């Protein structure tokens, strides 16, 4: 498939001069790039950028093959060197007589396909030039693509794309949360064990749970050593996850055929390299749970758990127990961190020693129609709030 350049007539935006030392940043947008060439270019930049797992070609390439038909490639270069890459997917407005489009960074805009939960989203950038190259890429995206539409970015570090505001765009937060991480190097630096960094309550709950599980038999961690074993663990996880989160659209990802197809693809590509890691944790013959993690850049990213809540003992804590065991394993393996990612839940707060805000934003250029839409949205919100019953 050949690269096709598309340039659009758009609204006014204030481009910022992008000079880095003696070099300028040149940005281009291509439609439906050749994916084999893109894979090579992406991997080359990835090796220098050392991004999060979600900007690895393993994730991005699997996403493209599983979820994306048409896309735009944003490419930033300094001379002949590629310093920034990003992929946008366009989604038409669902409103009648509305020709505007939304452009999603490393997402599709389709809720079913975006059930994959992309996190730490950004352009793939050389770290030493990241801020200026990101701004140059945003300027090009608004000038040649977005127009009076919307650029959607997230889930990302809150405010990461706010240089779009310097270009004249307006921002609207549509989702926000907190990402939790346990910095394992800080434990080592302070010569602390995992137990020592836990609260008294957290430590007590975990120890009590471990003792209850040990009464069922020896606690073991079985880590998938092959693609077949990993796919088998995913199949075991499915009914537990469906039971916990529901089998209707928008509930468990396992109720979503695209979600399942994507993860089959990801497991087939990433298990042998050790980047996709599935664990089954047992007490004797009784399953405690299946934990699905990513190991990348010497970090552990916790992605998904399917836990056994069928045992009728309220003192059994399958999630706390499983993560306690795997965090200790990560410590012994010399990993830098155990990242729980976004979502404010008790078990994440129990283990984490750092947190950061994350959000999804809509960026739009000022336009009369957009201002009217915003005013109507605010009016609707005020009316809705006005109709709510007063607190008792």
The largest sheet is:
14 strands, mixed
Q: Based on the structure given, which CATH architecture of the largest domain is correct?
A: 3-Layer(aba) Sandwich
User: Quick check: average pLDDT?
Assistant: 90
Radius of gyration over all CA atoms, rounded:
23 Å
How many β-strands, per DSSP? 16
Q: What portion of residues belong to β-strands? A: 25-35%
State the domain count: 2
Q: How does the helix and strand content classify structurally?
A: alpha+beta
| Helix content range | 25-40%
Shape designation: globular
Series of secondary-structure elements, N-terminal to C-terminal:
EEEEHHEEEEHEHEHHHEHHEEEHEHEH
CATH topology of the largest domain: Aminopeptidase
Write a concise keyword list for the protein shown above:
about 400 residues; alpha+beta; Aminopeptidase; two-stranded antiparallel sheet; about 30% strand; disordered N terminus; disordered C terminus; BioF2-like_GNAT_dom; GNAT family N-acetyltransferase; Acyl_CoA_acyltransferase
Task: Give a concise summary.
The chain has 392 residues and is an alpha+beta fold. The protein contains twelve helices and 16 strands. Strands 1, 4, 5, 6, 7, 8, 9, 10, 11, 12, 13, 14, 15 and 16 form a 14-stranded mixed beta sheet that branches.
């Amino acid at each position: 498939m050949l690269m096709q350049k598309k340039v659009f007539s758009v609204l006014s935006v204030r481009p910022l001069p992008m000079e880095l030392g003696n070099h300028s940043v040149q940005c281009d947008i291509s439609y439906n790039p050749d994916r084999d060439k893109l894979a090579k270019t992406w991997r080359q930049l990835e090796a220098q950028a050392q991004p999060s797992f979600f900007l690895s070609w393993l994730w991005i390439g699997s996403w493209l093959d599983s979820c994306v038909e048409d896309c735009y490639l944003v490419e930033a270069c300094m001379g002949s060197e590629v310093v920034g890459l990003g992929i946008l997917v366009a989604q038409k407005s669902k409103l009648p007589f509305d020709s505007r489009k939304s452009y999603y960074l490393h997402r599709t805009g389709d809720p079913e396909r975006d059930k994959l939960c992309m996190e730490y989203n950004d352009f793939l950038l050389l770290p030493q030039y990241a801020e200026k190259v990101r701004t140059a890429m945003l300027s090009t995206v608004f000038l040649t693509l977005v127009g009076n539409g919307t650029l959607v970015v997230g889930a990302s570090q809150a405010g990461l794309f706010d240089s779009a505001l310097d270009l004249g765009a307006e921002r609207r937060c549509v989702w926000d949360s907190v990402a939790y991480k346990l910095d394992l190097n800080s434990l080592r630096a302070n010569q602390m064990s995992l137990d020592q960094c836990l609260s008294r309550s957290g430590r007590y709950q975990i120890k009590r749970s471990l003792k209850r599980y040990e009464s069922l038999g020896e606690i073991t961690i079985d880590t998938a050593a092959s693609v077949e074993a990993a796919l088998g663990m995913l199949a075991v996880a499915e009914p537990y996850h469906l039971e916990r989160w529901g089998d209707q659209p928008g509930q468990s990802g396992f109720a979503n055929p695209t979600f399942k197809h994507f993860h089959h693809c990801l497991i087939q590509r990433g298990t042998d390299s050790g980047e996709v890691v599935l664990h089954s944790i047992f007490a004797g013959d009784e399953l405690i749970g299946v934990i699905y993690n990513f190991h990348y850049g010497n970090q552990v990213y916790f992605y998904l758990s399917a836990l056994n809540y069928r045992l009728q003992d309220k003192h059994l804590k399958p999630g706390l127990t499983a993560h306690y065991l795997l965090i200790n394993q990560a410590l012994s393996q010399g990993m830098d961190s155990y990242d729980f990612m976004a979502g404010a839940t008790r078990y994440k707060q129990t283990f984490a020693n750092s947190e950061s805000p994350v959000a999804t934003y809509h960026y739009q250029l000022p336009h009369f129609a957009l201002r009217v839409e915003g005013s109507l949205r605010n009016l609707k919100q005020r009316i809705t709030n006005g109709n709510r019953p007063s607190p008792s």
